[in-house]
Amino acid sequence: MNENLQGWLNLYKPIGISSFSALYKVKKKFNIKKLGHAGTLDPNAEGILPIAINKATKLISFINHNSKKYYFKIKWGEQTTTDDAEGEVINYSSNIPSNENIKEIINNFIGYTYQIPPKASAIKVDGKRAYTILREKKIFSLSEKKVFLKTIKFLGTENNTTKFLIECGKGFYVRSLARDIAFKLGTFGHAIEIKRVKVGNFDIKTSILLDDLLKIGQSEFGFKYISSSISMLDDILAYEIEEESDLRDLSLGKKIFIDKKKLVKISLNPDNETFVFLSNKGNIVSFGKLVGDLFQPHKVLT
Predict the structure, then answer these.
(1) Which residue(s) pair with 113 in the sheet?
(2) Residue 129 forms part of a structural domain
(3) Is residue 1 part of a domain?
(4) N or C: which end of the chain has fewer CB within 10 A?
(5) Is 233 among the domain residues?
(6) Quick check: is 42 catalytic?
(7) Nearest residue to 14 via CA among 209, 206, 170
(8) In which band, very low, low, confident or very high, does the pLDDT at 265 lie, cut at 50, 70 and 90?
(9) Residue 65: how many other CB atoms lie within 10 Å
């Protein structure tokens, strides 16, 4: 595979495989030097897993992590050790909430709230992952985290399970929300199905299933399924580099002059120091600071 290839792959990860394993399969199949993913999905969750290819890995932090959408189901009456179907049931309740009661309380979770992560999570406790401590059956607790929930939509109830669609920010745990909604309703509950349907500009409509991806050839992979590195970055101040001399200077980490009139998005404070992405034929080649007309690279991707 060409090492100059860079961009984004909108992968749909299936249930039963870790995000790392999905990445490894893609890397091995297409002989890609470097891959990275934005936003880990649990093995028991499925959905959108944005993958950065080669130099685009330097752009992962710029993906809009504050716009994620999940579809999920809560099974009422049981709390588990992992807050999903993988764990052992630790509490039971015969209280199955009505649709009216559910609709009445779910909006209480909208906005900034504090959430205790599931014990089966990758958060570190005294240097060890929480899920490792859980497997060792040791007693421990996790600190609450400030998280953001933008919207929550009730989608109906069937056979003691209720469906929801949410939009949330970075670091939000769907399993914790399922547990906490049940507590709020005076019962127990856990998530039995979790699907991530959107991460920033990555959505389910343009994704490709992992199994389908692994069946195609390398030429088709590069031509059909790789989006340019600039295409998945939201609301950025960008400038297209056209001169080869500028590209050479950037590759050496040198400052270059740019014409602010050609910026893709006009800066509100063009005379102040501004963060800018430079592109060439749709791919990011550098990002850094613009002071007046002078661009100073912070990272170079050429």
Answers:
(1) 147
(2) yes
(3) no
(4) N
(5) no
(6) yes
(7) 209
(8) low
(9) 18
Please check whether residues 189 and 88 belong to one and the same domain.
yes
Q: Which CATH number does the domain housing residue 101 bear? A: 3.30.2350.10
Q: Which helix (H) or strand (E) holds 129?
A: strand 128-129
Domain that holds residue 186: 68-198
Residues 167, 288, single domain; the answer is no
Residues 6+ apart with CB under 8 A from 230: 236, 238, 277, 279, 282, 283, 284
Dihedral pair phi/psi, residue 219, rounded to 5°? -65, -40
Alpha carbons 171 and 117: distance in angstroms, whole number: 9
Residue 248 is assigned to a structural domain of this protein: yes
| Of 15, 19, 9, nearest in space to 50 by CA | 9
Could you count the other beta carbons within 10 Å of the beta carbon of residue 224?
9
Quick: pLDDT tens for 170-215: 999 999 999 999 999 999 999 999 999 999 999 999 999 999 999 9
Is 270 in the same domain as 150?
no
Cβ of 286: how many Cβ atoms within 10 Å?
26
Task: Tell me the one-letter amino acid at 123.
Answer: I
Domain count, the chain: 3
- Collapsing DSSP to helix, strand or coil, 241 comes out as coil
Phi-psi region of 86 (alpha: psi -120 to 50; beta: other; left: phi over 0): alpha
Using one digit for the tens of pLDDT, what is the confidence trace for 99-154?
999 999 999 999 999 999 988 887 888 888 888 888 888 888 889 999 999 999 99
How far apart (Å, rounded) are the C-alpha atoms in residues 171 and 153? 20
Choosing from 42, 83, 84, 246, which is the catalytic residue?
A: 42
